Amino acid sequence: MTNDLLTADFYAYEDLLAEDERKILTRVREFLRTEISPHVNEYWAKGEFPREFIGKFRELGLAGLAYEGYGDPLPRASNLLLGTLAMEYSRVDASTGTFYGVHSGLAMYSVYQGGDQEQRDRWLPAMAAMDKIGAFAMTEPLGGSDVAGGMRTTARRVGEEWVLNGAKRWIGNATFADLIVVWARDEADDKVKGFVVEKGAPGFTAVKIEGKTGFRIVENAEITLTDVRVPEANRLQRINSFRDVAEILRATRGGVAWQALGVMVGAYELALSYAKEREQFGRPIARFQLVQDLLVRSLGNITASWGMLAQLARLQDQGVFRDEHSSLAKAHVTARMREVVAWCRELFGGNGIVLDHDIARFFADAEAIYSFEGTREMNTLIVGKAVTGHSAFV
């Protein structure tokens, strides 16, 4: 067991990483501690994404880590490393982790999985270098859980172009992204297809959603597409139906579960540190039984969730993981996260509702992670179908 493991890594899961992977994790951990952590409360309070973070992440140089041949420093990064890094980003700030995950996960993986070789070579090097930032536009104002069958955004082919019309909502990074992967239903065959819409396209607008009580650093946008013309060369050539899209969502849903673990770890570390320093009745509150109970229950959720995700990563590396595997992880880990952030916020008492102690941010951001990439109910139905053989979807 290494000596520099996180306090929350009670079973030393980080020791499962290879030596070169641990070096990358250490570098990311130091980067987040020095470059990102000191600024997040300021921007969370303002509800703005700090554009300077993009340059800092560009210098980190890891956006292409998951994509062999596109800027990655390893021959092939394991899914355990990718998941642990997703955890690490959200351990410091879930909003920043989401910015990075949308770009290097949802957007880049859509191009990597759905594009042909020419499209990969055209877009991925710039995305890996973070010279171009990506966004992923699927959810709609009237379609969340039912977007697979109820997508209203349409695509109509006219010669060598496609004309897109519709609206998207809750689209992270969209206010400043250079490349937006837009999903639309082909009017000709009623199949969902993917299109890369480039920044500045006529008819494309992205308006920042205001008034959020969580994920305030993420600039979610409402997108409107009015006769947006996209060349056939920008249609993702290997996406022919929503079944192909599901291949992308299967991988990214597991990433959200790792993000939820990061929120748990960050909240637990804050609570543990506070319990050792905060004194009541002439002693640190860490000496009280009920405080220790909150901490141990939180640690139990963290340890069990980490074990589940480590095994999920192994199944991914073996190429045998299925929709129900990632759905169970997303549903279960985010539910445990909700418990942990509530217990940890409780430990702070009144101090738990102000940004000064960070825990309020973790508590608020957890609600967003609990809902996106498939609600608990929808992921439960996916797993329920797998284990019973019966579909309970309406």
From TrEMBL:
Taxonomy, superkingdom = Bacteria
InterPro entries, per database record = ACX4-like (IPR045008), Acyl-CoA_DH_CS (IPR006089), Acyl-CoA_Oxase/DH_mid-dom (IPR006091), Acyl-CoA_Oxase/DH_mid-dom_sf (IPR046373), AcylCo_DH-like_C (IPR036250), AcylCo_DH/oxidase_C (IPR009075), AcylCoA_DH/ox_N (IPR013786), AcylCoA_DH/ox_N_sf (IPR037069)
Query: Which lineage do the record's taxonomy fields give for this organism?
Result: Bacteria, Bacillati, Actinomycetota, Actinomycetes, Pseudonocardiales
Signal sequence bounds: none
| Matches recorded under PANTHER family | ACYL-COA DEHYDROGENASE (PTHR43188:SF1), ACYL-COENZYME A OXIDASE (PTHR43188)
Q: Which residues form the Acyl-CoA dehydrogenase/oxidase C-terminal domain?
A: 245-387
Q: Does the keyword Oxidoreductase apply?
A: yes
Which positions fall inside the Acyl-CoA oxidase/dehydrogenase middle domain? 135-228
The molecule here is called Acyl-CoA dehydrogenase family protein
* Similarity field: Belongs to the acyl-CoA dehydrogenase family.
Name its co-factor(s).
Answer: FAD
Pinpoint the Acyl-CoA dehydrogenase/oxidase N-terminal domain residues. Answer: 19-130
List UniProt keywords, sorted A-Z.
FAD, Flavoprotein, Oxidoreductase
Query: What SUPFAM superfamilies does the database record attribute to this sequence?
Result: Acyl-CoA dehydrogenase C-terminal domain-like, Acyl-CoA dehydrogenase NM domain-like
